[in-house]
Amino acid sequence: MRILLLTDGIYPYTMGGMQKHSYYLTKYLAQNNINVTLFHCTNFNSKLKDQGADLNHFNELELKNIDFRLHEFPKLDRFPGHYVRENKAYSKSIYQEIKDSIGSYDLIYAQGFTGWQFIKEKKSGRINIPVVINFHGYEMFQKAPSIGAKLQYILLKHTAKWMSLNADFAVSLGGKLTTILQDLGVPNARILVTPIGVESSWLNKNPTPGNEIRKFVFIGRYERRKGIEELNKSLQQLIDKGVDFEFNFIGPVPKEKQLITSQVIYYGKIVNQEEIQRIVRQCDALVCPSHSEGMPTVILEAMASGLAIIATNVGAVKEQIKGNGWLLESISSEKLSEVLIECCQCEETQLSVFKKASIKLVSEKFLWNKTIELTLKQFSKILKKTT
Q: What is the rounded CA–CA span in Å between residue 360 and residue 32?
């Protein structure tokens, strides 16, 4: 089986859930002797020659099955809608490079908007192989955290809907994301429900009992939809009430947005996985208060590390919280404060139940070897239908 995989960046050169998924999908397909041609760019703001494109994070066996194609991501004007226009130009450029050999592939797997040109060519009859797209969170169809985001989502919706309806198959990570695709008019037969995976190296068979002073962690970029504004207000409320706790931020947070208190620790951006694991495993609960999400990898990593989860019911998050934490129906600083205090005050035995439930759930449903097994079954089924 030969797969053409399109993405707008790959972990660890570009950080993000979609980019991390592209890395692990490529890695595990290659481990299963699937030949993958990977088109990617590593950093929108750097020249290709500066980006270390050898991708030495793959082992020798995997590299035998991977053909890397580093491609320039176009930088156009910064007028509203530039992200879609840039992705369309990127997709068109990739197609021009690969079109003469497109018939040698069995399936095209496109992350986000990168599949736009390929769907156009498929509709025109110039491509006769199946195109699978994965928009991950479909954030443009979820609640916008601000007026600016709402305007941005409006500019993304039309193209995302057109691609979802015209691709051969659209991937849903599960939960509310399947409902979004159904509401767009995508038939159930063309929806591939496939969760994100996490590597078994994250599994912590012996999670620590609850810390006397509860330790929380947030992992991610500082952006409005991640709910950090509400989180900051919640933490300040706990401080004002004299609640003992420790909160750890992993990821870049602007200096002016940081709380001045010894109870909150800012680590900044950390790339080294072992260092992230070390910090996470010392904590009791991960906090993910997002306004919109797909299926956050950070939640799976925290579950595998033996943490309870505090998160909002967006995207496919509900699939990740089943007896292992607190699920908020919507995000507000008041509701989040209540849950954080509840976690601080809950008995160690209850917290231990949540921690063990996290490990059990991720072991049963979300390890990458299970995800890739499901993915390969879906690919084989697709190819049987189209041959």
A: 25
Tell me: pLDDT of 45 over 60.
Answer: no
Give me the helices (H) in the chain, please: 17-31, 60-63, 82-98, 116-124, 147-166, 176-184, 228-240, 273-281, 297-304, 333-345, 348-365, 368-386
What is the value of pTM for the model shown?
0.90
Which one-letter amino acid corresponds to residue 102? I
pLDDT by residue (tens digit) across 73-84? 877 666 666 778
Structural domains of the chain ordered from first start: 2-197+367-386 (3.40.50.2000), 200-365 (3.40.50.2000)
**Residue 132 pLDDT more than 90?**
yes
Q: Which residues contact 273 (CB under 8 A, 6 or more apart)?
A: none
Tell me the one-letter amino acid at 303: M
Say which residues have a Cβ less than 8 Å from residue 371's Cβ, sequence separation at least 6. Answer: 28, 194, 195, 196, 197
Three-state DSSP at 199 gives: coil
